[in-house]
Inverse folding.
């Protein structure tokens, strides 16, 4: 699922004693496409506090935006949440001591909607499993929005976890039918029907829509197909799909400079998204001009926050901060206080209002876009009434 930050998939999070490359945990494939997308967004929203908090919250407007349906359709949202609470997740894996562990849990232990906020929780046992990066690998939310078939998205989720090994390994047809949500249908007990109606269409959509290419292979017992696996390769032609999830930013010189300085992947992408490349480059240049700095990352953080190196008047070295600067600082604070899914939804909601040069300027500079300054203030005032109160006075 697109629910685990990429910079958390390495280092101390890896357990040397786990003997399986990818833990065997499966969520019922009976989820609809909308429910599957909803599950991914909820998990991404909760991931950072998955094991430390017993419940999680996300505003309903953001949630609807991220899964792509009318924000006023609360009945659909309620039905989808109900479906997640009624869906079973099952795991069967080796623990850190090499002992076999089997477990089962509802995908959500509860969910509720109140005052425009969705609150939900996972069972402690499932939260622990979901937080292990070897259980659920990354799935790009920008990619999942493109899927039109629940079977295709289910296939993508179960294949993408194995992208680094190049193959899912052999699955029995019974397991595969469960993953696709058709285990209860006698029609799909015949491989001919399963192949024609499920496998071929799902493979075609995954290869057309996503950042991987999958190729099915079957193994027979006698004349009957008994097992299936999928070979997996990256799809470089659709690498552009990763733009909203950081790949575009990772290909920039400014990102490389940030990483070389010791800035984490997530923080580097956050700064570039919130401040724009030009502003971050200015502060990198400023920090570089200061010579050796004991804590370069901390110094750069302050430079970005407090606009170090800005031109000041020779007559007045401490001039009043401009209204625009005060507004920009407030906008940075508002944006940084949002969770990753909310920040993504905010940008998409605002960008949907823009066209032509205004849209291009926002894509380049984000919330620091001078061309859209007034519209940005209006947007954040709508999201957070009173956010700019008191800023008009000189300071």
């Amino acid at each position: 699922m697109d629910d685990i930050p990429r910079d958390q998939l390495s280092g101390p999070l890896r357990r040397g004693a786990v003997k399986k490359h990818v833990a065997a945990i499966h969520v019922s494939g009976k989820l609809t496409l909308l429910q599957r997308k909803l599950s991914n967004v909820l998990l991404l929203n909760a991931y950072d506090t998955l094991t430390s908090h017993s419940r999680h919250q996300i505003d309903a407007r953001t949630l609807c935006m991220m899964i792509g349906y009318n924000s006023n359709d609360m009945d659909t949202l309620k039905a989808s949440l109900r479906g997640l609470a009624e869906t079973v997740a099952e795991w069967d894996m080796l623990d850190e001591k090499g002992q076999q562990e089997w477990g089962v849990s509802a995908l959500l232990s509860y969910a509720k909607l109140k005052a425009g906020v969705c609150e939900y929780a996972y069972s402690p046992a499932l939260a622990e499993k979901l937080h292990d990066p070897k259980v659920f690998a990354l799935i790009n939310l920008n990619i999942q929005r493109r899927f039109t078939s629940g079977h295709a998205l289910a296939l993508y989720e179960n294949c993408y976890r194995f992208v680094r090994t190049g193959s899912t390994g052999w699955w029995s047809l019974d397991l595969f039918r469960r993953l696709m949500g058709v285990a209860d249908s006698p029609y799909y007990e015949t491989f001919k029907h399963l192949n024609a109606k499920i496998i071929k269409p799902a493979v075609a959509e995954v290869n057309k829509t996503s950042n991987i290419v999958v190729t099915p292979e079957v193994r027979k017992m006698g004349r009957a197909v008994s097992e299936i696996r999928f070979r997996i390769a990256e799809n470089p032609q659709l690498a552009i799909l990763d733009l909203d999830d950081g790949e575009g930013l990772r290909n920039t010189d400014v990102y490389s400079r940030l990483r070389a300085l010791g800035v984490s992947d997530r923080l580097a992408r956050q700064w570039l998204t919130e401040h724009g490349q030009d502003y971050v480059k200015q502060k990198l240049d400023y920090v570089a001009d200061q010579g050796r700095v004991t804590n370069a990352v901390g110094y750069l953080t302050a430079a970005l926050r407090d606009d170090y190196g800005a031109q000041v008047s020779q007559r007045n070295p401490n001039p009043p901060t401009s209204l625009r600067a005060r507004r920009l600082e407030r906008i940075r604070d508002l944006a940084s206080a949002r969770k990753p899914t909310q920040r993504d939804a905010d940008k998409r909601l605002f960008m949907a209002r823009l066209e032509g040069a205004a849209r291009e300027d926002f894509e380049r500079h984000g919330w620091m876009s001078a061309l859209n300054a007034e519209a940005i203030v209006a947007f954040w005032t709508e999201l957070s009434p009173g956010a700019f109160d008191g800023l008009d006075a000189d300071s």
